[in-house]
Amino acid sequence: MLDVGTGTGILAVAAVALGAPRVFAIDVDPDAVAAARKNAEANGVADRIHVGLGGPEALPRTSAFDLVVANILAHTHLGLVKEYRRRVAPFGALVLGGMLTGEEDQVTRALVPLGFTPREYFEREGWTSAVFVRDGA
Predict the structure, then answer these.
(1) Nearest in space to 63 (alpha carbons), one of 71, 72, 54
(2) How far is CA 86 from the centre of its chain?
(3) What is the rounded radius of gyration, in angstroms, for the C-alpha atoms of the chain?
(4) What is the number of alpha carbons within 13 Å of residue 105 lying toward its C-beta?
């Protein structure tokens, strides 16, 4: 699994707690990277979470994941759509959060031409999350 914009690392820690064997958690903010490492250690899962500084473009070009999650603002998602295409393995899932309700349409319009199919949207208190599946091509 890849956690883009990991922040405190909560999604990475939760993924390991739910059975993910290994999680790569990345963020462009050095303070977030430090916090994610600290939280992984505090939760006893530091050996299963690799935390790195940078965005998905810093990963090896061949790195693809069955699951990519990102809880970041919609304009940041829009800037990463090509990286999402590169990082989500064929038939893999992309779970995006951090979008104000209404912004998910813009993100969806950017992802569909790249081979992503929206599967489900969740709205709560003015925020929307979305699940996409990548085609097999």
Answers:
(1) 54
(2) 13
(3) 14
(4) 2
Return the DSSP state at 36. Answer: H
**Phi first, then psi: what are they for 69, rounded to 5°?**
-120, 150
Using an 8 Å Cβ cutoff, are 6 and 51 in contact? yes
Q: What is the pLDDT of residues 46-71, one digit of tens each?
A: 999 999 999 998 888 888 999 999 99
Indicate the angle between helix axes 10-17 and 30-42, nearest 10 degrees.
Answer: 30
This prediction's pTM: 0.94
- Rounded to 5 degrees, what are φ and ψ at 127? -120, 145
Q: 121 forms bridges with which residues in the sheet?
A: 130
Once rounded to an integer, what is the mean pLDDT over residues 86-98?
A: 97
Q: Which residue has the tokens 């090509």?
A: 82
Cα distances (angstroms) measured from residue 122 to each of 18, 55, 95, 117:
20, 25, 11, 15
With vertex at residue 112, the alpha carbon angle to CA 109 and CA 117, rounded to the nearest 5 degrees, is 125
Residue positions counted in the chain: 137
Count of other CB atoms within 10 angstroms of residue 74: 19
